[in-house]
Design brief:
With about 70 residues, this protein is an all-alpha fold. It is built from five helices and no strands.
Length: about 70
């Protein structure tokens, strides 16, 4: 088993990469910022992982957020 601190740092890096991808940054740009190959970023999330989900999710508009808040 790896050191818990190392595992936590890896998890934090994945969250940061996911956030960048979700906000529209390409895998290639993320990889360049990390000094890695694009394939390394792709492998971080496994087959069909977070990179595809991040690319397909659209941020909610303010109107949708307001409607959800009114329903609650």
């Amino acid at each position: 088993m790896a050191d818990p601190i190392v595992e936590e740092l890896i998890a934090i890096k994945r969250l940061l990469v996911y956030g960048l991808l979700k906000n529209g940054m390409s895998q290639q740009d993320v990889a360049a910022a990390l000094g890695k190959d694009q394939s390394a970023v792709s492998r971080m999330f496994g087959k069909g992982g977070a990179t595809k989900r991040a690319a397909t999710r659209q941020p909610k508009s303010k109107d949708a957020e307001t409607a959800e808040a009114a329903d609650a």
